[in-house]
Amino acid sequence: VQLQASGGGLVQPGGSLRLSCAASGMRRSLSVMGWYRQAPGNQRELVATITDLHTRTTSVNSADSVKGRFTISTDNAKNTVYLQMNSLKPEDTAVYFCYVRVYMGGGYWGQGTLVTVSS
To answer: Which of 14, 41, 70, 109 has its CA 20 to 30 A from that of 26?
Structure first.
């Protein structure tokens, strides 16, 4: 499974960015797609995931720190997950990692894309 993430960059506080991550090479459908982040000196943490993609009823899990500001969505036909980030804060600065899990299979990480929020 290959993951290609894009959309990171430098943005001022209060600005917006949209991350995308396209998955390819799977033999089965995906059950989970999402984003984690890791700031310098910190552990990797959940940002938001969408689970149960292989069913008709999906669920969204997101960190309290991003609720109301970040929106996760998927394009199942393209096996792509997006993270719309609004009202960005300096504490959102981190490397953002795409994550997917194959239904009845393993999980895979993308290479990471840097988001820097600074004036």
So the answer is: 70
- pLDDT tens, residue by residue, 31-42: 999 999 999 999
Closest CA to 65 of 41, 42, 85: 85
Spatial CA neighbour of 113 closest among 42, 43, 35: 35
pLDDT, tens digit, 9 for 90 and up, residues 46-68: 999 999 988 889 999 999 999 99
Beta strand extents in 1-119 (DSSP E only): 2-6, 9-11, 17-24, 30-38, 45-51, 59-62, 70-75, 80-85, 94-102, 107-109, 113-117
Strands (E), 52-105: 59-62, 70-75, 80-85, 94-102
- Rounded to whole angstroms, the Cα distance separating 30 from 8 reads 24
d(CA 59, CA 50): 5
| 8 A C-beta contact, residue 108 and residue 34 | no
CA distance 10 to 92: 11
Rounded Cα distance, 45 and 76, in Å: 24
